[in-house]
């Protein structure tokens, strides 16, 4: 298929519309280089930036349980939420005392023994 020919008038109209579109896109901003305030020179010469970066935590690091605020409380709450009482068993979580009491009552047989554990 042969390409249609464009008249000089058609080409001029196309270029005018294209330039108008490009002007509009440029007015929206974005693209191009970023403005970084007064940073000049090489990045390695930015000692204030390097100082800030040096103060950041590594991407991989560890903490002891005692270094995490409320770690023990969070674990206590999670354990209490995980446990479910079964037949003839009751669970009593005392958040203030930090205890979990497990009570078991006899379910048959020759008597009614009761067992209680406090964790």
Number of strands: 3
Using the CA coordinates, give the radius of gyration: 36 Å
Low-confidence parts lasting 5 or more residues at pLDDT below 50? Answer: none
| Spatial order of strands in the largest sheet | 1-2-3
What share of the residues does DSSP label as strand, in percent? 15-25%
Main beta-sheet strand count, sense and barrel state = 3 strands, antiparallel
Question: Could you give the order of the helices and strands?
Answer: HHHEEE
What is the CA–CA distance across the termini?
86 Å
Percent in helix: 25-40%
> How confident is the prediction overall: mean pLDDT?
77
Structural class computed from helices and strand pairing = alpha+beta
* Tally of alpha and pi helices: 3
Q: Which shape, going by the Cα principal axes?
A: elongated
Describe this structure in words.
This protein is α+β, with helices and mostly antiparallel strands. It has a domain at 86-119. 34% of the residues lie in helices and 15% in strands. Strands 1-2-3 form a 3-stranded antiparallel beta sheet, with no helix packed on it. It is elongated and about 110 Å long.
